[in-house]
Amino acid sequence: MTWGSQPQSTQPDIWTPSRCNQAVQERLRGLRGLRVRGEVSGPRLSRGHLYFELKDSGARLRCTAWRSTVERQRLNLKAGQEIICHGYIDLWVAGGAYSLIVTRVEVAGVGARWAELQRLKAQLQSEGVFARSRPLPPLPRCVGIVTARTGAALHDMLRVIHERYPVRVVLAPAKVQGQGAAESIAAAVHALDSSGLCDVLIVGRGGGSIEDLWAFNTEPVVRAIVACQAVVVSAVGHETDTLLSDHAADVRAATPSVAAELVVPRMSDLRFTLRDAGARMMGVLRRRLLTERRHLKLVAERLGGGESLVARRRELLGRYRLQMAASQSERLAKLRRRLDGLSKRLHRAHPIRQLAERRRRHDAAYGALKTAIHQQLGGQSADHAALHERLLRLGSSGQVTTKHRAQLERMVTLLGALNPRAALGRGFSIVRAADTGAPLRDASDATIGQQLSIILARGALGVTVDQVHNESQVPEQTGSESAS
């Protein structure tokens, strides 16, 4: 049967909308056993029933899967999935809208856009882009909003913010849907963050299909959010919508209204918090005051009268004073004794005193040397070797300095050269008067019969003078030379 082929008597002259939809419904129910392939868009559950759309490049088809089908197949469709739906066409008479009643679902694959989304999400996760989560400022100075100027989401956020907390709000309007929306959102976020005015930014829009919200799944928007210095709240769509901007932001809000509630406190809550904190602080102060009063009372009871305490402290102070004075006197005497000892040591070690002592020793040594030389040259019987040894002992005794010791060595050497005994080994002799020991230098000094002592290199002779000759009468010697 075709439209209008019914007899005139079986059709009313004027049809109502219900009658029209019923007639269409009867015809559409003939479309059974359909298999429709497309990409899932905007899936949502309501009372166990699943509502979504199938789309291709040219059209959309509403689809409904009743609760029994959802439970039987455990359907959990995601936007962007490519599926094959088995079912039939039905029309909702009251609403005049038809849809595909889905009885079975086969997953055909992943749509191109969904595949690109998953690739981008994996790339951003590998870069650590989604790892940031900073806390919201408790009392923001300024709130920035990036959304459409004429959208209902903006009015909802402004209403909630002004009802809760009087804070400055700055809007950066952006295109949030369609061609160029991603670039517009990214530019608005960058401009608002670069201004440095805002503590926190809300980036979002109201609900819609996944296609309407797709701009918040793009890389420019994600990069702009991640680069923000201010804390970012993502508030896109409804609670069931989860986009890449939600992962990139510091905080995700289910809706724009919820985002407004998150970023600003309620003034009444702040007043209550202040009153509660004040009450708790006063309670703490009262308890502390009572505790200190009880402690003060106990201390006063233990102290008794103030006069006795002062008297005890005065007595103790007097004892300490006496002990300190005695200790100071003893220490002062000890230091004075030590100072006297150091002064004496310093006096003995004074350079002038040491110089005088060295000069005294030098004079004594010099005098002894002169005496020894005088005795040796004056005819005393002191042995030259003994004198030489004495001079050496004097030089090594430490009583003379290195300079004086060198002078003594030179004098000893000179004395050895002048020693008359050195010539005895060469055949000379020394003639002395036996009684006086005076050396004879001239024959005229001797008298006939005088006793003389002749000292040889080894031993001595005692002789008596029986002849005296003058210099011209001295006979020639044919043997060893001798003094006469």
Report what the structure shows.
The protein has helices spanning 17-28, 67-73, 112-126, 152-164, 181-194, 219-226, 244-248, 256-263, 267-303, 306-348, 351-377, 384-396, 402-418, and strands at 34-46, 49-55, 60-65, 81-92, 97-110, 142-147, 168-173, 200-205, 231-236, 251-252, 430-433, 451-455, 460-464. The protein is of the alpha/beta class. The protein folds into four domains: 8-110, Nucleic acid-binding proteins (OB fold (Dihydrolipoamide Acetyltransferase, E2P), Beta Barrel); 132-265, Rossmann fold (3-Layer(aba) Sandwich); 353-418; 424-473, no CATH class. α4 (152-164) packs parallel to α8 (256-263). It is elongated and about 210 Å long. The model is unreliable at 1-9 and 478-484 (pLDDT under 50).
Main β-sheet, in a few words? 5 strands, mixed, barrel
Q: What would CATH call the homologous superfamily of the largest domain?
A: Succinyl-CoA synthetase domains
Tell me the structural class. Answer: alpha/beta
Low-confidence stretches: 1-9, 478-484
Global shape = elongated
Radius of gyration: 67 Å
Instruction: Give the CATH class of the largest domain.
Output: Alpha Beta
Total helical elements: 13
CATH 2nd-level architecture of the largest domain = 3-Layer(aba) Sandwich
In total, the number of strands is 13
Strand content range: 15-25%
Main β-sheet, spatial strand arrangement: 1-2-3-5-4
